[in-house]
Amino acid sequence: MKKLISSLHGDKVIWALVAFLAVFSFMPVFSASSNLAYMRHGSGNALTYLIKHALHISIGFFIIYKVHKVPYHYFRGLSRIALPIVWALLLYTLVKGTVIEGANASRWIQIPFIGVSFQTSTLAAIVLYVFVARYLSKTRETPLTFKNSLFELWLPVFITLGLIFPANFSTAALIFSMVIMIAFIGKYPLQYIAMILGLAVAAAAFFILLVVAFPKAFPNRVDTWKSRIENFTSDKPDEDDYQIEKAKIAIASGRIYGLGPGKSVQKNFLPQSSSDFIYAIIVEEYGLVGGLSVLFFYILLLFRFVIASHKANTLFGKLVVIGLGFPIVFQALINMAVAVELLPVTGQTLPLISSGGSSVWMTCIAIGIILSVTKKEEEIAAEEEDKKRRDEALQRLIDKQIKEEEEAELAAANEENEEDNPMNAVLNK
């Protein structure tokens, strides 16, 4: 175990927080999956889902370990190569993607031979964040104009978001918000950001008008957008309203200390109890104390990302940590806000806790890249400490040599004085 821990590099606090959230996830996922097991197999035995979740988490940590070993500057060039590949995957998902777990949008593709569903928008987000960080760090060395950035930066951003938006509005909005935040932190001119926001609003309005004018193009999505907005602003009941009501009942039932692990009642009624609404199950079983504890650890993770970004020795490293770390925490906050009806239903999972395969793995890739940045900081600090020790050792040798030479010179001077002293000659006689 000590050998394994010693092989883990990077920010140890981030490692610990990620490990804690992942280990904690086994209890609510095991409890919440019983409803899924009952509906699919009629047995209610969630052991299969627990093993599946354990496999996903194990593969996720293997991904973190392998990714954090890669020097983070490699991802700089890799983002440019991966972006066209991501566009092709998003386009394929939009046209021939699969629908799983009752969703009414094609957000997944089936990976051949292994039968695993993969949500391409999560990979697109990671690649896009690194791409934006690369561009903003590069512009520090060359003059920046709006015309150049419009084609070199924002055109790829809008292409990516345009391929995500029709099937997953909430994810596209989250990604765009994070890109704007990265641009702001990367000191992209504020007047340019305002212009981009105007273009984004105009493009979104045009797309919505186009879809409303031709509803047969995306029939399910138009109905979903309308129902969610109407449900959030009125008391009209529908499926999302049903889920929110059950989530609020679960949260209210938990009170201060909760009903206890595995004793949730609403998990039998919430359709997405192990993924989108797992936070409601956590509060029901572990109470307000458990819910606030989970929130605390995500906030602590956010602060650790800020510290890691501050310590990064390059602008690219700073922006990568911010761009990959903040969305993880913000997605968690959105998931919690949906459970308490502060936001309309978005379909965002609780990172590192909700069940899932590709979503867990994509989060682990992001964390691995962040740890790669912090590992570089450690290497630089270790090199500086080693240099300091070498300099101190060299200085001690020099001081010792100087002292020996001074003593030798003093001894030689004393001998000369004794030879030149006439009293010595008299005493010798």
From TrEMBL:
Gene Ontology molecular-function annotations: lipid-linked peptidoglycan transporter activity; peptidoglycan glycosyltransferase activity
Entry's Gene Ontology cellular component terms: cell division site; plasma membrane
Entry keyword Cell division: yes
GO biological process: cell division; peptidoglycan biosynthetic process; regulation of cell shape
Membrane topology label: Multi-pass membrane protein
Region (Disordered): 408-429
InterPro entries in alphabetical order: FtsW/RodA
Matches recorded under PANTHER family: CELL CYCLE PROTEIN (PTHR30474), PEPTIDOGLYCAN GLYCOSYLTRANSFERASE FTSW-RELATED (PTHR30474:SF2)
Keyword field: Cell cycle, Cell division, Cell shape, Glycosyltransferase, Membrane, Peptidoglycan synthesis, Transferase, Transmembrane, Transmembrane helix
Annotated Pfam families: FTSW_RODA_SPOVE (PF01098)
EC number assigned by the record: 2.4.99.28
Identification of the protein by name: Probable peptidoglycan glycosyltransferase FtsW
Annotated localization: Membrane
Reaction equations catalysed: [GlcNAc-(1->4)-Mur2Ac(oyl-L-Ala-gamma-D-Glu-L-Lys-D-Ala-D-Ala)](n)-di-trans,octa-cis-undecaprenyl diphosphate + beta-D-GlcNAc-(1->4)-Mur2Ac(oyl-L-Ala-gamma-D-Glu-L-Lys-D-Ala-D-Ala)-di-trans,octa-cis-undecaprenyl diphosphate = [GlcNAc-(1->4)-Mur2Ac(oyl-L-Ala-gamma-D-Glu-L-Lys-D-Ala-D-Ala)](n+1)-di-trans,octa-cis-undecaprenyl diphosphate + di-trans,octa-cis-undecaprenyl diphosphate + H(+)
Acidic residues bias locations: 408-421
Listed transmembrane segments: 13-34, 46-65, 77-99, 111-133, 153-185, 192-214, 277-303, 315-340, 352-373
Keyword Transmembrane attributed: yes
Protein family (similarity comment): Belongs to the SEDS family. FtsW subfamily.
Class in the EC hierarchy, top level: transferase
Predominant localisation class: membrane
